Automatic annotation (TrEMBL):
Domain of life: Bacteria
Coiled coil (residue ranges): none
Source organism of this protein record: Wandonia haliotis
This protein's name: GAD-like domain-containing protein
T6SS immunity protein Tdi1 C-terminal domain: residues covered: 118-188
Pfam family, one: T6SS_Tdi1_C
Length: 191
């Protein structure tokens, strides 16, 4: 079975018991998904809603909230749409051609998933244990949940001091922070 004939069911089935819905998809957001990605993706999001998964390991976000953040990191274009943030504030977005991750703590980007990039990202990568371990820092995430508790959808485990300012990627350097404020201040470290 090719990617074109697959639906997003692998993703939704895999995380069915690990999700917490925090917001419905509004008509305006539904139209944005249709315009920038596809009707199929918009339909899946309408059914799923905006959710956190696996106790906050990652969150499906309202992309409009993250447009300014992408602009501050100089990666935004009119075709960009943020899909997911991980627990450490890294952003996974679609640029109109491929899916990309912005490692916000390092101001580095990595692209992956060509072709039907968004479907591939949701169907194969978000359901792949190795991908989640590498890109979502699962071990560190588990330690942070035990020490600091679960995240609200608008929160991130931030490194204090920030990594570009000499911070360490360890549990003792983590604090629960508001995502947008943290990413905005973090982006200033790279100017």
């Amino acid at each position: 079975m090719g990617i074109d004939s697959m639906s997003y069911c692998l993703f939704t089935d895999d995380f069915k018991k690990k999700k917490v819905k925090y917001q419905d998809v509004s008509p305006a957001l539904f139209e944005l998904y249709k315009k920038k990605i596809s009707v199929e993706f918009a339909d899946m999001m309408l059914e799923e809603g905006l959710c956190t998964y696996a106790e906050g390991l990652f969150t499906l976000v309202d992309p409009r909230v993250y447009d300014e953040v992408l602009k501050q990191y100089n990666v935004y274009s009119d075709k960009c749409i943020t899909l997911v943030k991980n627990a450490f504030g890294d952003l996974f977005y679609y640029d109109g051609f491929e899916c990309r991750v912005l490692y916000t703590s390092y101001n580095e980007q990595y692209s992956f998933a060509g072709g039907d990039a968004v479907k591939y990202f949701f169907t194969f990568q978000l359901t792949d244990a190795a991908f989640l371990r590498k890109n979502f820092k699962k071990k560190l995430f588990g330690e942070a949940v035990k020490q600091y508790g679960k995240l609200d959808p608008d929160e991130t485990y931030g490194f204090i001091p920030a990594l570009p300012l000499g911070g360490e990627e360890t549990c003792r350097s983590i604090r629960k922070v508001k995502t947008i404020e943290y990413l905005n201040s973090l982006s200033q470290a790279f100017l």
